[in-house]
Amino acid sequence: MSHLLSFVQWLNDTPISVYLRESDWPFPIIETIHILGLGFSVGTIMWLDLRLLGLAMREAPVVDVMEQLEPWAIGGFAVMFASGLLLILSEPLKCYNTVAFRIKVVLLILAALNVLYFHKRVMHDVDEWDRNMPWRAKMVGVLSLILWLGVVIAGRWTAYF
Amino acid sequence: MTFGRILPAWFFSLCENSWLGGWFKHAQWFFAIDETFHIMALGMLIGTLVIVDLRLLGLGMRRQSVAQLAGFLGPWTLLGIATMIVTGVPLFMSEAVKLSRSMPFFYKMVFLVCAVTLHFTLHRKAIASSTMKCSGLGRLAACLSLLCWLGVALAGRAIAFL
Description:
The complex is a heterodimer. Helix content of chain A is 80%, strand content 0%. Chain A is mainly alpha-helical. Chain A has one domain (2-157). By secondary structure, chain B is mainly alpha-helical. Chain B has helices at 9-17, 19-26, 28-56, 66-94, 96-100, 103-120, 122-128, 136-158. In chain B, helix 2 crosses helix 3, helix 3 packs antiparallel against helix 4 (66-94) and helix 7 (122-128) runs antiparallel to helix 8 (136-158). The longest helix of chain B has 29 residues, at 28-56.
């Protein structure tokens, strides 16, 4: 763990980190992009999850929802990832010391594993899913909703503890 | 321009000193939880708008018709708007005096009124008269909608900085 702390300390002292921390505009702009990106990332993926659970857009084939939303979700998450990294870079030590942020990172990793699991183990014969939704797909949907919700909540509470 | 220039000062003091305003001002947990729901609703709301407005622009879920998508997602959009307003009121009341002097807050409300009005008028009309192809009306409604909600979000964010 002390290796991680030394790395974080080193990161904290780099010129770019100091610049992001002490400048007037870059941090607010990056943070705003991160918050607005929420709509394109979690905001789109949640509709796929709700479709998997049969709670929204039931008349649209699952394949349609998946294939058409995926590019936008990917783009959205790419923006979140890039802006998120920059935000960490602006305050590495503070992030390291914040419990809520550590929880957020754990939840992020779990959410990513959930996506991987979905693509590698669950996504077979998707055309059949309109007739019969496999329980694994529903499970992935529920987990995804809970995990991303957790990420958003932990992200907001990073400001508090 | 701020609300303090339009409404009397006693209105804002009244809000801040009311039981709701006072409660949220002093109970950090309630404020945090309320704000969390505000942000969750934001994510959901933008999600529904993105899908429908992108479709009006001929992007995203092109295999479905605009009417279909709006039919599915419309109630969720309304739920999102309602949740944001309901969670937004206590947030306002707990800091009413400060917000009366806030220029971003004023513009946030202007954008919000425009966005909601647009949603129930032009946007609705564009959806009702839509076909599988894009129309000029649809594109206009989508662009205005996205701009207004972007305005709400940006102005809302700016409150903390200006």
